[in-house]
Each structure stands twice: as C-alpha cells, then as structure tokens.
Predict the 3D structure of the following.
Amino acid sequence: MAQSPQLARLQRRLEAIPKAVREAVVPSLVKSGEELAGAMGQLAEPSRDTGDLIDSIAVTPPGQSTPPYSQPGGARVAGELEVLVTVGNEDVRYPHLVEYGTSKAEAQPFFWPAYRLLQRRIRNRTRRAIGKAVRGGWNKP
C-alpha cells in the first residue's frame, strides 16, 4: 500500500526520537489515561443502573490489548506511545447507546465530555514530560 509523503515524514520523525525520551513519556501518558477514565466514571454515574458500564471503563497501557468488544474500536493492541481508554467488554456492549441515546432513551454522554474536559490538561502534561525528558537527555554523552 502506498504511503503519503506526509505520513512517511511523520514516521521518520517519530523513529528519530531517542528511546529514553519515549520511555520517559509513558508514565505521564498512563497517568493521563487513568485521569480520563476517572472523569468518565464520574460523568457516567447518573446513568448507573448496575454499575457494569462504569466498571467496564479500562485503561490500556502501551503494548497491551484492549478488552474484546470495547468501544471505540473493539480489541486492539496499544502502540508504543499510546494509552487507550475504552468502555465496554464481552458483557457490556451498550456504551454507545448510553453515550448517544436511542429512540426510546435519552442520551447520557460521558465519554466525549470527559475527553473534551481534560484534553488541554492531558496535552500540557504530555508536553511537559517530553520537554523534561529532552532536557534531561540533552547533556548526556
């Protein structure tokens, strides 16, 4: 499959990042994922019936696999610099119905509002972690 020049350039730039910098950023990514999952759980509280939906919110660290049937996207493996926050599992297959509503049930959004609420904070935390890792490795031989 052919790649666009922009994608190829991005891949070259990502591969050029020193391994120490990539490893130093992972804890901040996991912390951000856990914070996002907590916010999603708080926002999903009004829709609590059995608590299964809230219990199905999962944070998947780099290199791990998401639960089967999770939303959005189902089971997949998180990349090297990727933390995935998903909702749903084999037993809870209705998060999208709660998020967007149905013809018989009002929408009770929790996923995207939590993301929008914390988006800037997560971005800033990640930038700080990258900057700190780069500065820390700058003077090393």
The beta strands are 58-60, 84-86.
